[in-house]
Each structure stands twice: as C-alpha cells, then as structure tokens.
Amino acid sequence: HVQLVESGGGLVQPGGSLTLSCAASGFTFSTYYMPWIRQAPGTVLEWVSTISNDGPNTYSADSVKARFTVFRDNAKNTVSLRMNSLKSEDTAVYYCATGTDMATWGQGTQVTVS
Length: 114
Known about the structure:
By secondary structure, the chain is mainly beta. 0% of the residues lie in helices and 47% in strands.
C-alpha cells in the first residue's frame, strides 16, 4: 500500500534551518510529482512546494520561494524540503503527498519556529 513518512521536524529559532524528509513506499515514486503542504494552527492548508517526477522542475509558493528548496532522490524514494531563514509564520505541520492530485498524505511532521 502507499505509504509516506515525514521526518525532520522540530523546534528551531527564527533565522534557523531545517530539512524535512519524506520516505515513500508502495508506488512507483519516480513517476509522481511530489508536493509539500503545511497547516499552521487554526488555519487552512497551504501548498508549499512541488517537485516534478524526475526532479528538474520545482514550484514554490511566493511565501517560501526564496527560502525553501525541494529536492528528491528517486533511487532512495525520498523527497526533501530544505528550509532556510525560518520565520515564526513557518510554524506548521508539514505534509508530503503523492501527485498533483495529492491523493495520499503522510502523517505530517511538526515544525515550530520560536
């Protein structure tokens, strides 16, 4: 079955960095675009970034474009999100999902910037 497991979240000070990872299994990872989405407390879901199936094309929300980088390793079935210059407003639960339709989600990893 399809499974996504996020890791790498934690508590970081403003201006700091974190790298989130998402380990995928149960599907042909290299054929899927992979998005990251986040949800801050009391707010709606917000799309963060997406990477194309073979990696060269990435897309990010304006709020993170200059600070976050999405990358993947198709040999290891992982997609990662490097987050630099973190701000308090980046505090959220971060999820990876499968495909442009975001059909399957991981359980999420908490990022707290404080």
